[in-house]
Amino acid sequence: xxxxxxxxxxxxxxxxxxxxxxxxxxxxxxxxxxxxxxxxxxxxxxxxxxxxxxxxxxxxxxxxxxxxxxxxxxxxxxxxxxxxxxxxxxxxxxxxxxxxxxxxxxxxxxxxxxxxxxxxxxxxxxx
Length: 127
Fold this sequence. Notes:
By secondary structure, the chain is α+β, with helices and mostly antiparallel strands. It has helices at 12-22, 60-68, 84-87, 90-99; strands at 2-9, 27-29, 35-38, 41-42, 46-48, 51-59, 73-79, 105-108, 114-117.
């Protein structure tokens, strides 16, 4: 059975270092061999400084692996397609809301008019 997770990393550099040490088969490197990512099925990562949030889809075995990493915290875990936001505890929701800014933003369009855009509550989801 697959799971959807929201993961939080307070330090993406530490996460990539830990993945390289514990799960090197999951490490993504650039052409120079520098760690640049973590090969899990996920929606685009939300970043604030060196902190990150991701929606990740995992098998049960991958969930177990994710939960062994000390540099990442699973802040929500549901069966695939479940309601991640409803599954999040209040303390974890504070972390989530701090990283994922949901404040409406007003943008100027090419024709000079403005439009207010409100980011979605969930940072990403799978089809």
